[in-house]
Amino acid sequence: xxxxxxxxxxxxxxxxxxxxxxxxxxxxxxxxxxxxxxxxxxxxxxxxxxxxxxxxxxxxxxxxxxxxxxxxxxxxxxxxxxxxxxxxxxxxxxxxxxxxxxxxxxxxxxxxxxxxxxxxxxxxxxxxxxxxxxxxxxxxxxxxxxxxxxxxxxxxxxxxxxxxxxxxxxxxxxxxxxxxxxxxxxxxxxxxxxxxxxxxxxxxxxxxxxxxxxxxxxxxxxxxxxxxxxxxxxxxxxxxxxxxxxxxxxxxxxxxxxxxxxxxxxxxxxxxxxxxxxxxxxxxxxxxxxxxxxxxxxxxxxxxxxxxxxxxxxxxxxxxxxxxxxxxxxxxxxxxxxxxxxxxxxxxxxxxxxxxxxxxxxxxxxxxxxxxxxxxxxxxxxxxxxxxxxxxxxxxxxxxxxxxxxxxxxxxxxxxxxxxxxxxxxxxxxxxxxxxxxxxxxxxxxxxxxxxxxxxxxxxxxxxxxxxxxxxxxxxxxxxxxxxxxxxxxxxxxxxxxxxxxxxxxxxxxxxxxxxxxxxxxxxxxxxxxxxxxxxxxxxxxxxxxxxxxxxxxxxxxxxxxx
Length: 563
Prior knowledge:
Layout: E1 8-11, H1 24-30, E2 65-72, E3 76-82, E4 91-97, E5 105-111, E6 116-120, E7 126-135, E8 147-150, E9 167-172, E10 175-179, E11 187-195, E12 201-207, E13 211-213, E14 227-234, E15 246-247, E16 263-270, E17 274-280, E18 289-298, E19 304-309, E20 314-318, E21 324-333, E22 345-348, E23 368-370, E24 376-380, E25 390-398, E26 404-410, E27 414-418, E28 426-433, E29 445-446, E30 462-472, E31 475-484, E32 490-491, E33 494-498, E34 504-509, E35 511-516, E36 519-524, E37 530-531, E38 536-544, E39 555-557, E40 560-562
Antiparallel strand pairs: 1-5, 2-3, 3-6, 4-5, 4-7, 7-8, 9-10, 10-13, 11-12, 11-14, 14-15, 16-17, 17-20, 18-19, 18-21, 21-22, 23-24, 24-27, 25-26, 25-28, 28-29, 30-31, 31-38, 32-37, 33-36, 33-39, 34-38, 35-36, 39-40
């Protein structure tokens, strides 16, 4: 661990007459954001003649790259980065800068010629961290990428993961509104802060919902610019990273800002012909929410239905007996904007509402295929349970569009299927009971019989770089760059990928997104839809995870695979 007791600490707002006492490299990043650390500045008096040949100066090191946080505890963070490439001279050490937002104090720590270090931090605090290299000639590199780290409240107990950040904070006539923050256990409330624009943040109060009425005194006070921000809190005392800031004067959300997605979609009552749904209301974007659209789609079918309801949080839809549905809800506002879809809900109706058994069996376990030959394959699954008894399993072949064919009903948990060359060999299984109730289906398995050589796929015309900028237990920040390697421009782009784990995107910038389960679709913003031939576009996001945070293994741009 780096001993930070002799670290450099200076203020962003020290008077200008102290500037001469500080290194130019430090002032460049402490007082302004544009110049890179270590950049030379040459001042010329008015009327002076610039020299015809500028002086030759030694080349500084290149900036360190790929700064990440490998371990975050309540009192320390371990960092790693890719070493700087030297310019004129050998690298001698690195400077780590780790200020807290909404503070004018900028602590730094110096370490040797290494690519990993541990610095001391404080519980529940948020830090913005960057690294710069220094060489034997005293030249300082530009700064690395910046990462955001939030320390947990504790390193022991059932919850050591901070919540995700609240988003979409707005001030509407003295009332703050924001979108709910995610958490691995559950958000218990929000802290609302006032920032004076210099260095003082004051905790105004707490809220259990996603609104807060500002007291009149909160909008005045010393400082160049009164602003507000919000941090989420969980039961263990962990605090999230800060939301965006808003000014004390009422702010108008962007005219094209849609509502947030409805949350916590659930079914409160289900019969053979209907389901009563409930959800948590969406937060408005630019405009008032006027209604909701409920979409419900039969599994393994190409037909879907939708129904419009008002500005409510419960509704009943009409369904068919013994049928599985995927249900989503979207909010609509007075300007016609639609929110992202809620997380999907999978339900299945019973076969009947009368008789001794109106409860469908549970879904069988994971369906797999083994012993695949050119003519057959063995399907295997784990057993289902039922309140009365499972009497068998229906095995279906699906054509991938809308037709499912019942190929067998078996008493056990395996079946040898005959593969038909001219038919799409996709299968799923449902448990059934004596009353005719069927379970939710297993996963789908696609079986491709062994074949001879095939024509190779066309060359990819895009590459995607997925780079985690920081990662901590339960959270991470990632940058994605799309490179157009084709000879023509891309006009309007959609990037699709699937998370291999349970990651969820909570905040995304420079693009828009939709996520259904692990499947993610990213679309360009209004200003970066064109990618010229040989050019690239980048965006980033913050997300949560619990079981695994492995990177996606494949990407497609406008439906075509990328390298």
